[in-house]
Amino acid sequence: MKVAVNGYGTIGKRVADAVIMQNDLQLSGVSKATPDYEAIMLNKAGINLYVPEDNLKRFEDRGISVKGTISEMVNSSDIIVDATPGGYGPKYKELYQSAGKPAIFQGGEDANLTDLSFSALCNYEQASGKRYLRVVSCNTTAILRTICSLRSFGIKSVQVDIIRRAADPREIKKGPINSITLDPVKSPSHHADDVKSVMPDLKIVTRAAIVPTTLMHLHQMTVRLDKKVLKGEVINALLDTPRIVLLSSRSGVQSTAEIMEIARDLGRKRADLPEVAVFEESINTEDCTVLLSYAVHQESIVVPENIDAIRAVHGKATKNDSIKMTDDAMGIKRGYLV
Ligand code: NAD
After folding, report:
1. pLDDT in tens, 49-86
2. Which pLDDT does position 316 carry in this prediction?
3. What mean pLDDT comes out for the span 225-253?
4. What is the C-alpha separation between 76 and 66, in angstroms, rounded?
5. In this predicted model, what pLDDT tens digit does every residue of 4-59 receive, in sequence order?
6. Which of ligand 1's atoms lies nearest the C-alpha of 138?
7. What does pLDDT average to over the chain?
8. Is 138 annotated as catalytic?
9. pTM reported for the whole predicted model
10. Which helix (H) or strand (E) holds 319?
11. pLDDT, tens digit, 9 for 90 and up, residues 147-199
């Protein structure tokens, strides 16, 4: 299947690399709006680069080779992963629809843009027969993975306190640089509704604050279950779930900085960590209540979900087969991180 990535930014470049790694997918090309260092690197890597028609001259003026326009990229592909900045989705959906191509959108778009908000672990099967999916945001993907790993215990309600990174590492114009900012001040934050776009019946409240860091988000989650659960049972459930890793008490890890150092030490490309990283020592069970804390690498967590979303729309792989193919190809772990 020929996959195009529209929007080669933080998410798009990682999805493009992940497509190249899959045996059953082929990258037909990527698009960018700005003729900068990424475009030069794409030329050097021999990856087909497409640009908005109005921007063709800007790329030519900088001596950057362009294969064609975004419309041409869409027409020469079987499916599009749209990773343009949030809000561009409606405009591009019209283009994909008129070309008769299915597409995967990102969490920055409204849930009602697509036929289904998607989480590979929670609702892969519901994507069958759908043309337009939305991979939910980084925070929502992490919440859903964690909740779905505990689903067999029967979930009564969930509360998540989300400590958000201020910006991605390469973003030079975002803050705050010296503040803890409630974003939003009101509770619940929009994340609860986003989780409900995948699990409508779940009782969940979320609150969020932004802190001056670029590395990862941190979530502190409280889950109330239908029955009593032991700490060991929760640990086993998490160890058994794809795309969740545990930071053991032996490892001494207590921060997002150390987790990113591990990703670098493991030789992960771009120091990515698409797994939800749960601090084992944070897991606490009290009767029917579970407390846990985990870190979320916002730049990469949604990438495997995008690959599964492509297969889910195509209908050629089961949930477990797709997750295994994606994770094997990308070297994504489960169990203990180290
Ligand atoms: P980004 O700004 O890093 O990248 C966007 C890319 O789109 C850039 O390459 C830009 O050149 C290109 N672009 C801009 N205008 C375009 C146009 N008109 N046509 C084609 N391409 C255009 O954005 P991002 O952080 O990768 O976010 C993309 C989507 O992924 C958003 O919906 C966002 O909410 C979502 N998302 C982001 C993160 C994150 O932490 N960065 C995490 C999960 C989901």
Report:
1. 999 999 999 999 999 999 999 999 999 999 999 999 99
2. 84
3. 97
4. 15
5. 999 999 999 999 999 999 999 999 999 999 999 999 999 999 999 999 999 999 99
6. 43
7. 97
8. yes
9. 0.97
10. helix 319-330
11. 999 999 999 999 999 999 999 999 999 999 999 999 999 999 999 999 999 99
Q: Within 13 Å and on the Cβ side, how many CA atoms surround 106?
A: 28
**Quick one: tokens of 97?**
């629809």
Q: Are 204 and 196 in contact (CB under 8 A)?
A: yes
Encoded tokens for 2:
């020929």
130 C-alpha to ligand 1 centroid (Å): 23
66 touches 60 (CB < 8 A): yes
Residue extents of the structural domains in the chain: 2-136+302-330, 138-301
Q: Which atom of ligand 1 is nearest to the CA of 165?
A: 40
Domain 138-301: homologous superfamily in CATH: Dihydrodipicolinate Reductase; domain 2 (3.30.360.10)
Strand partners, 82: 6
Output the CATH code of domain 2-136+302-330: 3.40.50.720
Q: Which of 106, 191, 305 to mutate to test the pocket of ligand 1 (most atoms within 8 A of CB)?
A: 106
- Which member of 122, 138, 148, 288 is catalytic? 138
**Of residues 140, 116, 136, the one with CA closest to residue 126:** 116
